[in-house]
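just leaving the lab so this will be short. below you get a single protein, a line of residues and a line of whole numbers that encode the local backbone shape. id like you to explain what the token line says about the fold, in plain words if possible. thanks a lot i owe you, the record is right below:

…
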Amino acid sequence: MTRLKLAIPSKGRLKENAENWLARAGFKLRQSGGDRGYTAELKGLPDADVLLLSAREIAQGLIDGSFHIGVTGEDLLHDLSSDLPRDASVIKRLDFGGADVVVAVPAAWLDVNTMSDLEAAGARFRQRHGRRMKVATKYLRLTRNYFASKSVGEYRLVESAGATEAAPSSGQAEVIVDITSTGATLRANSLKVLDDGVILKSRAALAGSLRADWNAGARDALQKLLSSIEAVESADATSLLMVSGAVPDSLVSELDLTAMGENSFLSASGKAVENARRLTDSGVKSVSILKSDFIFDQTTPSYEAFITQLTARA
């Protein structure tokens, strides 16, 4: 049987956040060969092989089917794949790695604030300098597609090999397309984001390859992984109310509670305190609010949705 191949980032905050996310679901990473190793294993998921790679390598590996699942940026998946719905699928958007892919121009360009302004500026630039203005980026496909959607053609792409935000000040390009979390680096380099220049709002994601060899062993390991992840999500989203006394069915329905037993109910975490007060006001003697680490269900929606996509592609 094919073992599940999982890739996570090899360094930096993405690696740390991915490790913590997996550990919360009960899967602790143990890196082979110490901190410099590029393979690992997950405690609790013995049928998985873990690879530690760059986020770009992970995205490319998912697209070409080199491994089954991986944690990478949505920006890279969209940029590297020419047909993402057939290559890979985002299984879970994660609560880290958030950043925007943006079009930025020199802040001194006071009359350039939109993509249509940029097209007009490009035409003037070519008339004045006898060449098209250069746009530096690592996101070649995303840039081409977005510029085409905005009817911008007066430019020439330059692939960035280093710090893209430095391209205008160094004379390598006039405009950039880059990823930013806060905009601080762009501002430090005297750049501004165009008003309609956000190409993609990206996050880190757990994505699955639609081209990999998904036999029963890999599918079973994925289901085990996702069921634990969703159990943590359910536990975060809900609180357990333990009550002393009977609760009328009408109140259970009104408060949108889920009965777990005669004296226990699940409540949305954000409404747990309010619901506890409503229960005591109705005559229940006491209510305790408890938090769980995991709440497992018989179904795993994210797994089922991914398998449906996988089957449809086949």
Remarks:
- DSSP finds twelve helices and 16 strands in the chain.
- The chain has three domains: 4-97+203-213, 99-201, 234-290.
